[in-house]
Specification:
Elements (H helix, E strand, L loop, with lengths): L4 H7 L5 H16 L5 E3 L2 E4 L4 H15 L8 E4 L16 H16 L10 H4 L9 E3 L2 H9 L10 H10 L1 E3 L11 E5 L6 H14 L3 E5 L6 H14 L4 E4 L7 E5 L1 H11 L7 E4 L6 H10 L9 E5 L1 H10 L1 H7 L2 E5 L16 E4 L2 H9 L4 E4 L2 H8 L2
Length: 384
């Protein structure tokens, strides 16, 4: 990989230990992905925030580097493990709370915006077309490439943090070439957000770095997020393009059979003890839609709704939160369905959700059974 003279000196430690560590990470990542060089970025979005995912080693590393490390570009954060406003209601382990707050403090000390959101594309202004960014959150990376006309690889927690500090990322993978290796023909009629999530999950399995999708009408925000979330969960694919692709591009159908296969893989029970909505987190439009769908109805079991804090504050001003709470919803900011200790097998046997991403992590990381169905079906079955 070609480095400039300044990059070489930083790699040797001539610009300090923090920059040396960051460049080592970027160079190692670049060499592993056949990068030609490092290129400037304008925005980094970091994962590695939830204590459940990075543990003691991650917390200690962040604490140690935050004394000297500072980000050099706009940098935002993924969700953490709880909403600080109501953490006392969940009986979480005091050590978990302490370590999670330490992680939060470390990132803020480094100059990171404490967004705690997996949907940065909905709560921040999108840069101009073609802007290079470094997103570690998988659904956000796919959304950036496919919907926002930005460019990012699916970064790791370490490479995104290194990019935030240095202001550069490796020029490799989808940054260099986003030519799809396969075209997926959408054959399912009348798709809802769950269908799009399953299509994304299927595409993530069969695609390489990007895929063509044919047979789709215009997607709304919920459908697009569902597809990005599903795709980011199941494989390395980082972009979808609408179209037929080249004539020599392999073609494969996503039909009712393939959709049922995905459903059977993730759906493990026919009934949930609680309901979770928001993986990816819900934006203001989705909060508005949910409020309308619940008018005159209320959930008959606990329903946890996850959204960014900025969205929660906007929803509160408009009056949505009061209406949702009357309908039996708990509205949580700063955290997400996935990997949160708020949902664990000691307290919950099964969860009902409309999220493919949520279903995957609830099943495989939280260890609970999953009842998977669309939002309209959830409201029909679980409210009165």
């Amino acid at each position: 990989m070609e480095l400039t003279r300044d990059e070489e000196s930083a790699l040797k430690g001539e610009h300090g230990e923090i920059m040396q560590i960051a460049y080592r990470i970027l160079v190692a990542t670049g060499e592993a992905t056949d990068a030609e060089k490092l290129i400037p970025i304008e925005w980094a979005h970091l994962s590695g925030v939830n204590y459940n995912t990075i543990g003691d080693a991650g917390e200690e590393f962040l604490s140690s580097i935050s004394k000297d490390a500072r980000v050099s570009v706009k940098t935002t954060l993924n969700p953490m493990g709880f909403d600080i406003d109501n953490v006392a209601n969940y009986g979480l382990d005091k050590d978990f709370i302490s370590k999670q707050l330490s992680i939060r403090n470390s990132y803020e000390t480094m100059g990171v915006v404490p967004s705690f959101s997996c949907i940065p594309y909905e709560i921040f202004d999108i840069p101009k077309d073609g802007t290079q960014v470094a997103f570690a959150e998988s659904n956000a990376a796919i959304h950036a490439n496919s919907y926002d006309n930005l460019k990012t690889n699916k970064e790791s927690a370490f490479s995104a943090l290194a990019s935030a500090i240095v202001g550069k990322s490796s020029y490799s993978s989808i940054r260099k070439d986003d030519t799809p290796n396969i075209t997926i023909n959408m054959k399912v009629k009348n798709p809802n957000e769950l269908t799009y999530g399953m299509l994304g999950f299927f595409a993530g399995k069969v695609g390489d770095t990007s895929v063509n999708i044919s047979g789709l009408a215009e997607m709304d925000k919920r459908q697009c997020k569902a597809m990005c979330g599903g795709m980011g969960t199941s494989g390395t694919c980082a972009k979808f393009i609408f179209g037929e692709g080249d004539s020599d591009c392999e073609k494969i159908d996503f039909d009712e059979k393939e959709m049922q296969n995905v459903h059977d893989e993730l759906n493990t029970t026919e009934k949930g003890d609680i309901i979770t909505l928001g993986s990816p987190q819900l934006g203001l439009d989705e909060i508005s839609d949910l409020t309308s769908m619940l008018k005159g109805r209320s959930f008959q079991k606990r329903c946890m709704v996850f959204c960014p804090r900025t969205v929660k504050e906007q929803a509160k001003k408009i009056g949505y939160t009061t209406q949702l709470e009357r309908a039996g919803c708990e509205i949580l900011a700063d955290c997400c369905t996935c990997l949160t200790p708020l949902i664990n097998k000691e307290n919950v046997d099964a969860v009902t959700t409309n999220s493919i991403k949520g279903a995957f992590y609830l099943k495989n990381s939280n260890g609970v059974d999953v009842n998977l169905k669309s939002l309209s079906q959830i409201i029909q079955d679980e409210t009165r």
